[in-house]
Amino acid sequence: MLAWLSETAFAAWVRGGTWTYPLIEAVHIAAFAVLVGAVVVLDLRLLGMARALDVRRLARLAHAVAMPAAAVAAVTGLSMFIARGPELWPNLAFRVKLVLLAGLAVNAAIFHMRDVMLRLDPWARLQVLASLAGWFAVIIAGRLIAYV
Amino acid sequence: MYSRRAVVAAAVAAALAPLIAQAHHGWSSFDQERPLYLAGTVEAVKWENPHVVLTVRPADTLAVPADLAMRSMPAQEQPVDAAAILPRTTAVSDVSGTWTVELAPLPRMQAWDVSAIAPGTSVELVGYSFPADRAERIMRVEFLLIDGKAYSIRSMPKR
Fold first, then answer.
1. Residue A45 in contact with residue A120, Cβ under 8 Å?
2. Rounded to whole angstroms, what are the CA distances from B127 to A28, A118, B24, B55, B139?
3. Do the Cβ atoms of B105 and A147 come within 8 Å?
4. What are the chain A neighbours of B105 within 8 Å (beta carbons)?
C-alpha cells in the first residue's frame, strides 16, 4: 500500500520537482507554527495568564486560526507521506509524532466534552499542561524524522 | 505564579532533553576520516529530493587513479580541503555488490549544472561510508566525477 502510493504520479511529482518537496516542507512548518502558536496562547490563558481576556472569545479566535492551519499541515504532511511512505513509516520519530498527534486530538476532544474551560479542575489543568508539552514534543519529533 | 510556571517549564524541558540529545544521522554518521573512492556504472537513478540516490555497480578492477591526489576540485561555499582529502582516499574494499550512493538535493545538483544522470553512465566518486565495523555499501558523496568533470557537491558552487 505505501509502496503503491509512493509510485503514483503525484508522489513522483512531489519528489522529482526541484523545489516541490522543500516548498511543501516549508508550508507544513508555517502551518504548524500558526497552529501551535494559537494553541499555546489559549493554553496559557487557560492556565491563568492574562485573565482580563475573555476565555470564550479567545478560544473562538484560537479555534478559527488553528483549524485551517491544521488542515494545511495535514494536507502537506499527507503529501510528503505519500511521496516517502516506505521510508517514513518505519521511522521511530515519525511514529512518535503520529502517536503524539492522536493523543493530542483525544486530549482536546475530552477537554471540550467536559466543558471545563471557564473553571479548570485539576484534571483539566493537567490536560492543558499535557497539551503544551505534547505540541512541543510533536515539533521535536517531527524535526528528528530526518535524523533517526 | 511565575515560580510555578518556571517549575512547569523546567519539568517540560527536562522531559524533552533526551529527545533533543539523540544522535544526528546526517554527515556526522559517516566516517569522514576515511575518504573512499568508488568507480563504476550507474545501474539505477532516483533523481529526487531530499537527495539524489544512485545505485552503482563497482568496476571489476578498482584502484584509486594515480592522479587523483593531484586533481583540483571546483570551489564551493563550504571550506572543504580537497588537497588534504584526496591523498588519503582509498578504494572501497567491498565490491561484492552494488553501492547505494547519496548525492545532493535537486536544487544543489542543478546549481552545479549536473543534468539527470542516466543509467549506464560511468561515474567516479569520492565520499564516505559508515565506520568500518558497520559494513554497509552506502556512500555519501563529497566529490562527483563524470566525463572527467568534477563537482564539489557538499555545498553550492562558489560563484
1. no
2. 32, 60, 18, 14, 6
3. no
4. 22
Sign of CA dihedral B139, B141, B143, B145: positive
Residues in chain A: 148
Cα→Cα distances A30→A34, A69, A123, B89, Å: 6, 8, 32, 43
Cα separation, B86 vs B67, in Å, equals: 10
On whether any CB of chain A is under 8 Å from the CB of B105, the answer is: yes
Q: The pTM is what?
A: 0.78
ipTM: 0.72
Which of B5, B22, B50 lies closest to A147 in CB terms?
Answer: B22
Give the contacts of A62 (CB within 8 A, at least 6 positions apart): A38, A39, A41, A42
**With an 8 Å Cβ cutoff, are A147 and B20 in contact?**
no
User: Do the beta carbons of residue B39 and residue B58 sit within 8 Å?
Assistant: yes
| Contact between chains at A140 and B19 (C-beta distance less than 8 A) | yes
Residuewise pLDDT in 10s, chain A (148 residues) = 999 999 999 999 999 999 999 999 999 999 999 999 999 999 999 999 999 999 999 999 999 999 999 999 999 999 999 999 999 999 999 999 999 999 999 999 999 999 999 989 999 999 999 999 999 999 999 999 988 8
Instruction: Note whether A148 contacts B1, CB cutoff 8 Å.
Output: no
H or E stretch at A76: helix A55-88
CA triplet A6, A66, A118: central angle to 5 degrees? 140
Residues of B with CB below 8 A from A11's CB? none
**What is the spatial distance between Cα B35 and Cα B82, in angstroms, rounded to a whole number?**
11
